[in-house]
Amino acid sequence: MRYLALLLVILTFPAIADVQSKVVKYQDEETALTGYLYWDDAIKSPRPGILVIHEWWGLNDYARKRASLLAELGYVAFAADMYGTDKVTESPGQAEEWMREVTADVEGWRSRAALGLRQLQVSGLVDGDHLAAIGYCFGGASVLQMAYANANLKGVVSFHGALPAAPEEARGNIKPSILVLHGHADTFIAPEVVANFREKLDEAGADWEMNTYGGAVHGFTNPNAAKHGISNLRYDAKADKRSWARMQAFFAELFSD
Amino acid sequence: MRYLALLLVILTFPAIADVQSKVVKYQDEETALTGYLYWDDAIKSPRPGILVIHEWWGLNDYARKRASLLAELGYVAFAADMYGTDKVTESPGQAEEWMREVTADVEGWRSRAALGLRQLQVSGLVDGDHLAAIGYCFGGASVLQMAYANANLKGVVSFHGALPAAPEEARGNIKPSILVLHGHADTFIAPEVVANFREKLDEAGADWEMNTYGGAVHGFTNPNAAKHGISNLRYDAKADKRSWARMQAFFAELFSD
């Protein structure tokens, strides 16, 4: 069968990935930041770059794991630091505090995210016309802010992210395509927030798609989501798999030119 | 690059499809029906079967074209007839009348759709454990009804379909996975209908996903949608491409066992 034969080709494609990583120290005025760059050393030519922005916990192993997986897929990935070196926690209270420190100043929030993108751009590994950003939870909201600031990105992907509405001044000026991957049972995001988010994207004339997974809550891509004992945080294998596959198809579309 | 190499494999995969079709006459009590079966003659083993249900216009070339494309992808596809032989129109009034004749009796609606599925099952070409159904507009609502009736399907896909809510009696008993591909600007489907549709799917415990395309209206997959002069009917190339790709990934997941 044609599609089975194709599947076989995919499955047996030699695993040539030779993923490397390095620590990248950078600075946002007085704040010292530490990110991680991942790339496949078997690839010698410039390739698309993906910025990865962490959950509200800070830049922990989860965001780094996703960046590493992206490198296995052939991208250069940079797991950015939005809080500051070593600011990683498992306390929701602490996470919320750090998150609010960043999000309270939208311009500062966007420029810190842009500094992460900058690390990709100066890595010497990427094709600078083929950049995208993904983010989880707080990171999802962060990549949406980058789209609203019309960052030099082909697209952004939010996984169970907060959904800040596009501001008035973004109208007609959101070039990145937007893909939102959302758990329908996520009680952190009220239905009216979702409705307003969509309405504002339409008003802004953005290219957007939202995939909603029935039964999935916040954190559906993170196998450790439930360990915090918060009922709205739970892994969902099906939604995880579907959202990751959708992201890959989205990238294939964005980078096809 | 690994993913580019893979893309190349896909693009250069030899086009061996040898799509055949045949007219299938069948009967729903007194109503004579005429459907079309499509399959790739180069494939000799049983393969997944996909039922295709037409828009409210009746079984026209558009639904047949989709069935033919599915055969090119390696499936056996049956474009079912839900109205009766030669009941095809370009008049919205006539379309609505024929549609209402079918939908007024939910049991009759479901059993007529099941008769379409039956034609696939008796074709001698399909793997009877690997069946799915897709539908457009009225056809989208039809495949949802099949899911609510717990038809022998791995999954159903609605493209810009009407969104009937799952009935009480379907609770805990919807085995087919449900994928809904929806235009956010589709004024035929009110926001409260969408909200209720989702709520009832959750209550029923269904596995469902809904992809919403910003700016897309009804008929976004049909290049001829706008010819009827109805402002809510318009083709959207991006949403068409994304939804067709998402359907294929969904099938790959459904039929992976």
Describe it.
Two copies of one chain form a homodimer. With 257 residues, chain A is of the alpha/beta class. The first copy, chain A, has a single domain (2-254), classed as Rossmann fold. The first copy, chain A, has seven helices and eight strands. The first copy, chain A, has helices at 2-12, 61-72, 92-103, 106-121, 138-148, 191-204, 237-254, and strands spanning 19-28, 31-40, 47-53, 76-79, 126-136, 155-159, 177-183, 208-213. In chain A, strands 1-2-4-3-5-6-7-8 form an eight-stranded mixed β-sheet, sandwiched between helices. In chain A, helix 5 (138-148) links the parallel strand 5 (126-136) and strand 6. In chain A, helix 4 (106-121) packs across helix 5 (138-148). The longest helix of chain A has 18 residues, at 237-254. The radius of gyration of chain A is 18 Å and the shape is globular. Chain A starts with a helix and ends with a helix. The interface between A and B is large, with 48 and 48 residues. Strand 8 of chain A pairs antiparallel with strand 8 of chain B, so a sheet runs across the interface.
